[in-house]
Each structure stands twice: as C-alpha cells, then as structure tokens.
Amino acid sequence: MTGNGSNGTEVATWDAKLGAWIVDEAGACKAFLGHASLSPPPYVELYGALEQRFGLDFSNLRLAFGHIPLCLHGASHAAARKAIAGQLARRRSTVLGTMTGRVERHFGNLAETGTVELMAASIEPFVADFMAALIDIEDAGFDADSLISRIFSRGMGIAKRKRAEAEVAALRARIEASGVSDQADVGQKLAMMILGRDALTGTIAYSLRDVLVAGQGRPFAELVFPDLPSATGVPYIERMAHEAATIDGLTLAPGERVRIMLRAFGQSGDPRDRAQFFGTGAHTCLGRPVALEAWAAIGAFLVSLPTTVGPLLCRARNDDIFAIPASLELEVCP
C-alpha cells in the first residue's frame, strides 16, 4: 500500500510489519519532519505500561525519557529543550577548548603505518571521551556493547530492556556520585548521553568512511572533508499523529505512525540537505553545533598527517536503531 501526494507522486509506503508509513524521499521527509501534527511516541507511558504488565522496574529509563526532548511533546518538550540547552551552554567552551587534544589523542595512531581498526582504536574512544566531557563525568562507563542508546527499539525484548535499565541505573549512580544531586540535572545528563553516544559514533564513522574511500591511495593531506557529514548515525526517526492530519497529500488518522528516513537527506544529491540529519524546527538537535565542531576538528587533524590512505574494510553492526559500523579496518601506508 502506498500513499500518494496531491501531485500524484508516491509520498509514503505502508509497512504492515512495522505498522507504520515509511517516508523515504528527501522532500517528503522535510514536510513530515517539521509538521506540527506529528509528535514522538509516548516513551514514558510505554515503559510505564511495561512495568504494569510484567511487574518490572523501569524507573531509571522513565527518568531518562522524561528529559529527552526527542521523546516529548508540547510544554514538556519545550522545558526539556531549554534545560538541555543550558547544560550544553555551560560545557561548550570547556569541550571545545580541549577538542584538539582529544582528537590528537585518539586519532594520532594514523600517523603510523600499519592496520588500524578505527572503531575500537579511535572513533569509539573519542566519542566516549567527548561525551564524558560534555556531561562533565570523568568516566561514563559505556562499552561498545551497551544497550543504553538502543532503548528506542520497538523490537528489543524484555531481557534486553532489563539490561538497559540496569545500565542506565549504573550511569545514574556514577552521575550522582560525581556530586550531582538534583534529579532534573541527573535526568538531563542521562538524556544527553543516550541521545549523543551512538548517534555521534555512527555519524562520524560512516562520514569518515566516505572520506577515506574517496581518498584511497592519496596522502591524508589531500583528503577533502565536507563541512557537513555525509552520513548520519540516525537513519530514521518515528513520529505519531496526535491529531488527524494531511501531510504532503497523505492523510493520517490519530495514532498512526510514520517512520521518517533521515538517510534520504544524504542520498538526495544536494549536499545542503545533509543539514536535515540534525532535524528541523522545534526538534532540531541541540548538539548539532558541538557535533560539527568535533567533525571539523577530526578533519583538520587528519589532513595534517604524513601518511597515506590505504584500503578500507567496513563491516556494519546489526542494529535496528542506529547506523554504526561494527568495524572499520584501515591500512595506513607510508
């Protein structure tokens, strides 16, 4: 089943398994992304329902979801955005002031010849370091197999949700042990970590892959880094119609789901569309400026290296929420 717009072109495709409309064209994605009749699924309520159904405790996940702007609507969304913006503003100068050193520490291995597995040796440690600085926690304690950032998955089973709850509880304990006692501040730091880690990891990793593949056989000094990342670690977001609406010609009933494929902005052929990776309007990613600073710092450092880009082998991670390589094996040549 497809939904056609007023001009007769296909706007969306119905996925019966997901129970959602799939929007996978850049122009249509823009229209759906910023529409006021769509809002995020009610994650706090959904986890509350799971607690009641299975007799489990998801209080730490509910605390986090209650401070993630991406998961909220209306006044609660506006309040969460204001709070997160304040957290970012307080840490921005410190994070940017140490950015160059962090990049050099984690990507300096590319100055030496040999095989480097970029995910484990550079990208994941850099993002962990970066996020710890952003939330002002010395050790956030995430490992590469953490489930914390995958709590948005509709397909994750109860056992994994219980493990994610335990991980969020452990992170909450580290935040509180650092001297943060206000629960709103704790919730905001949890939200920043959950939103930022895997999204930034995937965006940097796949965008860097594109740069390295294009530059294979050339010195690092000749690499071309675009101002905007060429890929996103968040291939899609989901929205629900909280009221009847017609968007770009597609009529939605209240409660109908839409999966907006952000990856379309990297496939449109217009590099300017990549700005939409970070959302638009009221849901624009608050971390966009500092994420772009990180991307620019990585590019500036890599073009200073004396080595040459060799073959790159990329293997994707099995993940239904984020787009992240399981490995990026690069041969660094003289």
Key features of this structure:
single chain, 334 residues, Cytochrome p450, six-stranded mixed beta sheet, 9 helices, globular
Terminal residue distance: 54 Å
Number of domains: 1
β-sheet strand percentage = 15-25%
What spatial form do the alpha-carbon principal axes imply?
A: globular
Radius of gyration: 20 Å
What is the architecture at the second tier of CATH?
A: Orthogonal Bundle
Strand order of the largest sheet: 1-2-3-9-6-4
Number of helices: 9
Total strands = 11
SS content category: alpha+beta
Percent helix among the residues?
Answer: 40-55%
What's the CATH H-level homologous superfamily? Answer: Cytochrome P450
- CATH classification, class level: Mainly Alpha
